Structures are given as C-alpha cells and as structure tokens.
Amino acid sequence: VNAVVTLDAEGALAAAALADERQAGGNALGLLHGLPIVHKDSFLTAGMRTTYGSPLYRDFVPERDSLIISRERAAGAITLGKTNLPEFGAGSQTFNTVFGATRNPYDLRMTAGGSSGGAAAALATGMAPLADGTDMGGSLRNPASFCNVVGLRPSTGRVPQWPTASPYNTLTVAGPMARTVADVALLLAATAGSDARDPLAIEQDPARFLDGLERDFRGVRIAYAPTWGGLPTEPAVVQALEQRLPVFADLGARVEPACPDFAGADAAFHALRGQTFAVGYEAALREHRHLLKDTVIWNIELGLRQTAAAVVQAERDRAALFARMHAFMQTYEFMIGPVSQVAPFPVEQETVGRIGDTAMQNYIDWMRSGYYLSLTGHPAISVPCGFTAGGLPVGIQIVGRYRQEHALLQLAHAFEQATQCWRRAPALPN
Description:
Structural class: alpha+beta
C-alpha cells in the first residue's frame, strides 16, 4: 500500500530492547511505553529523513524533533518510521514524485485519502497501532474515513506545534490517529498540554483525556447535517450514514435535521489557506518553482496575489461563522454528518473533478465537508461508520462543542462500541 516510506527497523528493535530493560528494572513507564508508532513525513525526526513529500527535501535529515515527536518518544513510544503524504500536505489524495501514491488497503485500486494517507493505511493494515498527523482542511479525518480508522482533529492549540513557520496559523492542527477511539484518546493525552513556544497552546491538563469514555447520552440533542447545508455529496456516502442513525437513538440521544449557516466559508478558507501557503512556501516557489506541483503553486500564488480586502473579508466572514456556530452549538451538543463528500476514488485520479452533476472548482472543492469545520475551530472526529456496496469504507464526522474534546471522544466511543465497524479488516493479498 506504500504507507511507510522511511522505515527504521533496527532503531525500532533497539528502542524495544531498551523498553524491555526499563520495564524489567521496575522503572516508571510512560503512557505510550513500548507502543509502536509511525510519524507523518511532515514532522521533523532527528536523524531520520523528513521529506514533506517534496523532491526539494528528498534527502533532508533534520537534527531535531518536532514537539509532537519528542512528546511521543518521551512517553515511551517506539518509532517505526515515516508515513507518506502529498507534497507539502496539499490535498486529500496521498501521492508525490518522491515515493509515489499510497493505496487504499480495502481496495488497492483506490486512494487512501490524505494528507495523512500513509498514516491511515498503516493503521488499517496493522503496521502500527498509533499514528500522528496534521489537519488543515480534513487531513486527519478524510484518510481515516477512507481507511476505516479513527482520526481526530483537535482544537487549535490542543497539541502544540513547534517548530512552525506560522505559529499563529489557526487552521492547521496536529493530532492523533488510531484504530479505536480509546487509542486516539491515549495518544492525545500523551501529546496535548501547553508549551511556551506555541502562542496558541491551550493551558489544560492533558490527563483529562485519560478519564473514562463511558457516558449516558439520554436526552442529548444531536444535529444531523447529511450534506452540511447542501454540498454535493455522493448518495453512497449519505446512505452509509443513514443506516447508522438509529444507533444514536438507541443511545438515548435525540437526532434532529439541522445545520448552521456556512455562508462565506469557502472564500474565507481559501484566503486564509492561501496566506498560510505564502508564508510557508514563498521561497520554495521563487527558487524551485519547477519542482513544485501545480496545486501547490496555485495555493502559494493565491496567497501572494490576493488583495488585502480579500483577507480582511475572510476574517470578517470567519468571525461571523464562529458566532453562528457557537450559537448553534448551544442548542445541540454535537453535530454529525459525512467526513468526505465522496467515497474513495481511483488512486490514479489526482482529485475529484465532479460530484454528480456538480463540477469542482479546484483540487479541494470536494473536501468542503472537512474544511468548513476547520474554519470554525470546533473539534471533529472521523469514526468508522460502514461500507459502500462495493466494500469501500465510509466514516461519520462527529463535531463537538468548542474545546470539548473529551465529550466528543465519549460520543465517538459510544458509536464505535455500538457499531463495531472498525473490526472489519481489509482482505489484503498474501
């Protein structure tokens, strides 16, 4: 499936031996002691190649770890290697000119999604129980949906990011992926917590995420938005969700059709995303344009060429959207809907050109179901929900109240326990 693109088998075995010695010696053990983990190839790993999926960094070996990596290692996790991603994490389809494409374990003809596609495929095939990733417009959630695993987009600042070219970027977050919600909660507990080097880091004890996931949901109101307010969505995706709606009623919750107004979200996201790409990759465009893929060039140039008025309006629209979302979530504790507007598509297809009769305007237009929630800042999780008639995974996206990840994990856990969809493993060839 081409999930792990840099493997450190010897280093992992050596770390495992040290973990055995530490445990045998009666030493204090970290939350992730002895657990194998794979890291997205956009995180710095000291002494291990970090390529960002770009030929510019094909042979780049950093001398330091990203903060999330150092926290995972400090907690006792054992690094197996790095997972594939699209160039600079741009797009929800994992392919690049350095390593090629990552394939979907449930159908090798299909994409695993992205941008944390290698992570999702590695989890689905059982290569590792834990993985980390990032999410700007759906990159933790989309591949989780496509590969029948769990991906949590936490609140901005929940998992601090360092180093970064954009420390005040509120769109991109780091977060956990795993096969179950409980494992995601464990990894979140090990990686969350404040750090003075991230100005957006949340000051809250991450041990909160070790609390029990059991909860009574009787009387809880849940908004159901099958198309997030009218987005073109494949019928097979909606059908998979519809089949599972009775689960929430069985839990005692009240599910009601409702959706906040996402007016202005598209222009706002593109303006703010373009600004982030310009901050991070202007030099790469100027010096190595010929080595960048077209969609990355488009995003950088959008950020460089857009008017100040466009950025100002984006901030206004985002502020209004957050206010509407906050008010909406006072009525409903949770909101549910599709993670992705489409099911997994052919791996040779770089992006989705149309959904039904609706043409997509750019390479991420089919992921508005993901980036609308990125824009509001509310935590969102993808949980296995079912399969299409062709056997392709479909995830459900559950959105929680602002900075209320623990409650979100509780509902996700209850849904997972009731459905057990995560147990359906891919039938890989020998």
